[in-house]
Specification:
The complex is a heterodimer. By secondary structure, chain A is of the alpha+beta class. Chain A has helices at residues 35-42, 90-99, and strands spanning 3-5, 12-14, 19-23, 51-57, 65-71, 77-82. Chain A has a domain at 18-23 and 51-109. Chain A is built from two helices and six strands; from the N terminus they run βββαβββα. Chain B is an alpha/beta fold. In chain B, strands 1, 2, 8, 9, 10, 11, 17 and 18 form an eight-stranded mixed sheet that branches. An eight-stranded mixed sheet of chain B has the order 5-6-4-13-14-15-12-16. In chain B, helix 2 (42-55) packs across helix 10. Chain B starts with 5 loop residues before the first helix and ends in a 14-residue tail after the last helix. The chains are: A alpha+beta, B alpha/beta. The A-B interface holds A 1-2, 15-16, 19-20, 22-23, 35-36, 39-40, 42-49, 52, 54, 72-75 and B 239-242, 245, 250-255, 299-304, 306, 308-310, 343, 398-399. Bound molecules: flavin-adenine dinucleotide and zinc ion (ZN). Flavin-adenine dinucleotide binds at residues 38-44, 63-66, 70-73, 75-79, 206-207, 235-237, 239, 243, 258-260, 294, 337, 339, 363, 365-369, 414 of chain B. Zinc ion binds at residues 6, 8-9, 11, 58, 61-62, 64 of chain A.
Chain lengths: 109, 414
């Protein structure tokens, strides 16, 4: 059972309490952007085998959206953090770099 | 290759089964092939087979990082049906289903296709309308299905409880020529036929990189060294995103776990396949007597072939309400596979931004039924550059808004 700590209410919530929301830190392209950008925002996903940043909602708890850094090949959770950000916090990135040397990620923005 | 026949069984019985040949060869890779297929699941092997059979292209290697058929092809619950809603889906799934009808003869390998009938229960008024609509669509597409009432459901499958308290059975979409087949045999049969045509099936050979030059594919890096090719077919289901990254593009795909389970074997009690999409569960009985059960996919990205237990619980809970007699059954085994989900729940069979590189993926929770048809279309696409079966399933449909929306028809995993 996947357990994530909600960064708002501090509850260690197991996955039946949570709703997954897909890849995090996507750049939102809207009307006026190029077809390619709009397509990538809506559909293209990194879907990595390894480190993944994703959105979750504490649906049956405080109801808020937050972010989690997880590994899709070991199910290890590196950490969770509030959603009011465009990139993962430094301590989580450092932790991942420590455990997975050579790990790299796209430029956030 | 010696053919399998009743005579061969008699001959081998008389000489202590000493004369059976290996079903396929296990060669070391050559330096170069005309075509390399990555992934020896059903779809990869079928693609190779029809490249040889329909187009005479036999200088082909199929590269597999594990053992052939060890991916989703060997992990699914083997439901075969073609009662989809959209015309493009009906065309490829019905082509596939009809190829299954004589696949055993074609491959000279018993794939145990059993057209025992597939029933999709309508348990809400919304589903009643939805399946009536599908039945009408199927009539126009030439796919033989029928909308039936609850009495007929009970007649076809007496162990169903049709007047359950929460979700009574209101009717069903019935496809009499749908059914099941032996999943391993499908992979093994295609592999044997490919090997007999001189193709190389190379197991324990992981593709680790894609080589290109001037926007055109040149070959692959593998755990057995580099191998060159003119054309590359990527057919790796849950690992499509990983291969796409090697080839330098991204896909509208997420990989998630889907699980299944089987019970202890019991006497024959059910000779149709029943799917209950509202409550997320489906069941059939294998030839060994096990009840084969599947349900919904997990919601988050996962490559571990292990799913969440609460999905099993949900599925079993739902099925016990529909089939009260299974409530005392012991479950024997449970497992998971990594399925490749697209937003419109339809597959991708397409050219890619890298010239000479083709992709076949996105079959998600329901591609076992599609193996022969997908291989047929993919081979045509790779050999000639276009196929009427695959045209609508191209990668650019997402950008162009041409979705093939099957999220209703494929509402539950199967
Ligand atoms: C539990 C479960 C139940 C299902 N039930 C049904 C059902 O009832 N009916 C139905 O129609 N469908 C069902 N499906 C879906 C079906 O199993 C799949 O859609 C289908 O088997 C996909 O076949 P494939 O050949 O594309 O993929 P796979 O069989 O997964 O083959 C892909 C192969 O690629 C290999 N590979 C990956 N990466 C590399 C690499 N880098 N180098 C070399 N090789 C690589 C893998 O090892 C694997 O063998 C189910 C799936 C699951 C998991
Ligand atoms: Zn919370």
């Amino acid at each position: 059972m996947l357990i994530l700590t909600c960064p708002y209410c501090g509850v260690d919530a197991d996955e039946t309490e949570l709703t997954p929301g897909g890849e995090a830190h996507l750049t939102r392209h809207g009307p006026g952007s190029s077809d390619d950008d709009f397509h990538d925002y809506l559909f293209a996903r990194d879907n990595p085998r390894g480190v993944h940043f994703e959105r979750w909602r504490h649906t049956y708890g405080c109801g808020k959206w937050f972010h989690a850094a997880r590994s899709t090949d070991t199910l290890e959770v590196f950490g969770t953090y509030p959603a009011q950000t465009t990139e993962p916090p430094k301590d989580i990135c450092d932790k991942i770099s420590g455990e997975r040397p050579g790990w790299s990620w796209r430029i956030f923005g | 290759m010696k053919r399998y026949s009743a005579f061969a069984i008699a001959r081998e019985a008389l000489r202590h089964h000493s004369g059976w040949e290996r079903a396929w060869a296990s060669p070391e890779p050559k330096r170069k092939y005309d075509v390399i297929i990555v992934g020896a699941g059903g779809h990869g092997l079928a693609t190779a087979y029809y490249l040889g059979k329909n187009f005479g292209i036999t200088n082909v290697a199929v590269l597999e990082k594990g053992w052939l058929g060890g991916g989703n092809t060997g992990r699914n619950t083997t439901i075969i049906r073609s009662n989809y809603l959209q015309d493009a889906s009906a065309a490829i799934y019905e082509k596939s289903r009809s190829l299954y009808e004589d696949l055993s003869q074609d491959l000279n390998y018993n794939v145990m296709f059993s057209p025992r009938g597939v029933m999709m229960l309508a348990q809400t008024h919304h589903e009643v309308r939805g399946y009536q609509r599908t039945a009408h669509a199927n009539a126009l597409q030439g796919v033989a299905t029928e909308y039936i009432g609850p009495e007929r459901v009970k007649e076809l499958c007496p162990i169903i409880c049709i007047d359950g308290p929460r979700y009574p059975v209101l009717g069903a979409l019935w496809q009499p020529r749908g059914g099941t087949a032996r999943h391993d045999a499908v992979a093994w049969g295609y592999a044997r036929a490919c090997s007999a045509m001189g193709m190389d099936i190379i197991q324990k050979c992981e593709v680790t990189g894609v080589r290109s030059e001037g926007g055109k594919v040149r070959g692959v890096e593998t755990s057995k060294g580099p191998i060159e090719c003119d054309k590359l077919g990527v057919v790796v289901a849950g690992h499509s995103g990983v291969l796409a990254e090697m080839a330098g593009f991204r896909l509208p795909i997420e990989s998630v776990a889907l699980q299944a389970l089987v019970s202890e074997p019991i006497k024959p009690c059910m000779d149709v396949v029943v799917m209950a999409n509202t409550v997320h569960g489906y069941m059939s009985q294998s030839d060994k007597g096990e009840m084969v059960i599947g349900g919904g996919a997990d919601g988050y990205n996962n490559y571990t072939q292990r799913g969440s237990f609460h999905h099993i619980e949900e599925t079993v809970r739902a099925l016990i309400e529909t089939f009260p007699m299974i409530s005392r059954l012991k479950m024997l085994r449970q497992w998971g596979g990594i399925v490749d989900m697209t937003g419109d729940r339809s597959p991708i069979l397409s050219k890619t931004p890298l010239e000479g590189c083709f992709i076949n993926c996105g079959w998600g929770t329901g591609g076992f039924k599609a193996i022969p048809g997908s291989g047929w279309g993919m081979a045509q696409l790779m050999a000639t550059g276009a196929s009427p079966l695959t045209a609508e399933f191209s990668l650019d449909r997402f950008k162009e808004g041409r979705f093939i929306d099957e999220s209703v028809a494929a509402g539950v995993a199967h």
